[in-house]
Amino acid sequence: MDSQAWRTELAAWLGSNPPQAPLQLQQLRQAFVQRFPIAELPNLTLDDYALGKPDSFCYWLEFKTKALGSVAGGSSSKWGIWWSKGDQQWKWNKSFQCDEPDEALAQLKSGLVSLVEAAASDKFDQLDQIGSELGANRNGLRAKPLYLYFPDKFLPISNPYHLAHFLNFFNQKPAGGLHSKNHQLLAWLKSQPEFAAMDTLQIMFFLYSAIPPGYRGRRAKQPISKPDSDIELSEEISAEIVRLATLTEETHNLILYGPPGTGKTYAVNKFAKLFLGEQLNIPLSSEQQHRKILQPLKWHEAIALAMYLKLPQKYLKVSELVENSLIQEYWPLTKTQKLSNQIWAMLQIHTHPDVETVKYKSRQPPYLFEKNQQSEWCLSEEGKGYIEVNLADALENLQQPDARKPLISDYLRFVTFHQSFAYEEFVEGLKPVIVEGQLQYQVVDGIFKEICRQAENNPKYKYLIIIDEINRANIAKVFGELITLIEDDKRLDGDSEITLRLPYSQEEFGVPDNLYILGTMNTADRSISLLDMALRRRFTFVELMPDPALLRTVEIEGVDLEKLLIRLNRCITALLGRDYQIGHSYFFNVQNLADLHSVWYGRIIPLLQEYFYNDVERLRAVLGDRFIQRVEFDDDTQKAVKDLCDLDSSYLIKVFEPNEDFLEALS
């Protein structure tokens, strides 16, 4: 759809739809405002607010006003607090870090009131920051009330990925978070005379009917009034990326699958930037910075660091260490139950054997602590040296924190599965380590457990782990008991929350609600039909197939790459099945004949030889006679091996120079 096409489409749409919302929908919005006046928001009770109670604020947002913009999908936890009919009790997200539902409600109301007040004062530049304080996965709560209270200021669209899709279509570079994108899109649309007479609800209906997320048509090409015509526009968001992002409103577990070369890894990297993009604009708080520094430390290192930072105060009692601010920050990063017992144990274990005031016998290096006759503890000279050498970076960052915006790696982990990948690498396992020249076995966290801990300790933000080639490992062995814990309703804060005791560390473990899992799967490497059924039931699948249309404008000296790919894939589909097709990305970097020659002989033919191993006739059917050269054997060779092998299946790939003969063979 080009610039004239969307205008034509809009004119046709307005021919059968009014520019203003129907009266019954206007009355529905007014009914919400009357039921929940802005002035009464601070006075909302649990029954007034929470889903699970009749006629509540959240019930109106999700169900009674569905015709004014849907916020359906996901679980009740997206509203922060809800009434569990099954358990007959209030439940709320752990991100509130409180013991009573009224405390959680107070936090929600504070954020919601601040958001509405900022919108009323047209402080659009503050909305993303205020909205983020409501927590991750609460886009419906952030966006829907603003439209209902201020229908002229906001579009009734609460999905930031849909907003980015619409902005991209109109050649507008998406900027900022959810509210910034909403305001940006509405401002641009209202600057177009075709939309000037329409209200925001009707604009929304038109956008979803004419340019739905996932729309594969061309973007608009109309001139854009910008002071700087060289501003680089955002890359177009593919249908698959929009679909992945939209599905995260409903599930935490996704797999992008398809044949080789369809751009799965590229797509998930683009998705990660879109999915985590809004929170990357929020500077790391001091608490986040401290957690990032302290997370990798062991207990004895955290204690030693706390003592070092108290210098010149030399001696500390255990009671003082228990109250130490650094220890208090580190403690939630562990699963330790009794803090004072843990500190006592670490101090005694890591005291030098020559110190006679400690009676504990099984001491272990590094030897960091000493104890006097008054049961006061201090760092030994060896302990000070250990801090200054081994924890120098942590010490410097704690003493001189550097306020910065986060990197995507602060919220993202990437891992590739392979045949030997194991539970011990993914979750936790015993690994040999050398400590002070001695071999010891310690429980070491795997990549999944690490990011789970980070997400659990920072519940206001979303975390993502990308598992490339998820089908290449033994899923049952790698995930182990986690296969149950990753289910949406079994996660922490879920309706059926489950925690398990891990086999090595004996820690209670659950998967946090703000962690998302995105896998990729090459269907040619291992058929999707062979994927572990337990995993299949817990993931939502999005298919990414070859798209020859992406090569439509590419022609190399008469060779139409779109037609070439279509012809190859038709033959492959007929002989092997659709899972073995060749993806469009194999030809993306082909710009001249030399590139085409290199890709053909270096990537396409080796892949086809693997597909049709020891099957020359089917290989010939795909490549054609010109590229398959039968091997001729003399009489003596034929007599010598005729009973040992099939000489008719022997062949050579004929290698053409990048010239007219090569082009003719391709065509």
What is the strand and helix layout of this fold?
Elements: H1 3-16, H2 23-35, H3 46-49, H4 57-64, E1 81-84, E2 89-92, H5 101-120, H6 127-132, H7 139-149, H8 160-169, H9 178-190, H10 200-210, H11 239-247, E3 253-258, H12 264-276, H13 286-294, H14 299-309, H15 318-323, H16 325-330, H17 339-349, E4 369-371, E5 377-379, H18 381-390, H19 392-399, E6 412-416, H20 423-426, E7 428-435, E8 438-445, H21 447-457, E9 463-468, H22 475-479, H23 482-485, E10 500-501, E11 508-509, E12 515-522, H24 533-536, E13 540-543, E14 555-556, E15 559-560, H25 561-575, H26 593-611, H27 616-623, E16 628-630, H28 635-641, E17 651-653, H29 660-666
Relevant terms:
667 residues, 29 helices, 5-stranded parallel β-sheet
Describe this structure in words.
The strands form 7 sheets. Strands 6-9-12-3-13 form a 5-stranded parallel β-sheet. Strands 1-2 form a two-stranded antiparallel ribbon. Helix content is 42%, strand content 11%. The protein contains 29 helices and 17 strands. With 667 residues, the chain is an alpha/beta fold.
Summarize the structure.
With 667 residues, the chain is of the alpha/beta class. It is 42% helix and 11% strand. A hairpin with a 2-residue loop joins strand 14 (555-556) and strand 15 (559-560).
Number of helices: 29
* Ends distance: 32 Å
Question: Can you count the beta strands?
Answer: 17
The share of residues in helices is 40-55%
State the secondary-structure class: alpha/beta
Low-confidence stretches: 218-235
Report strand %.
Answer: 5-15%
Q: Characterize the overall form.
A: flat
Largest sheet: 5 strands, parallel
Strand arrangement across the biggest beta sheet: 6-9-12-3-13
The gyration radius over C-alpha positions equals 31 Å
Overall pLDDT level: 87
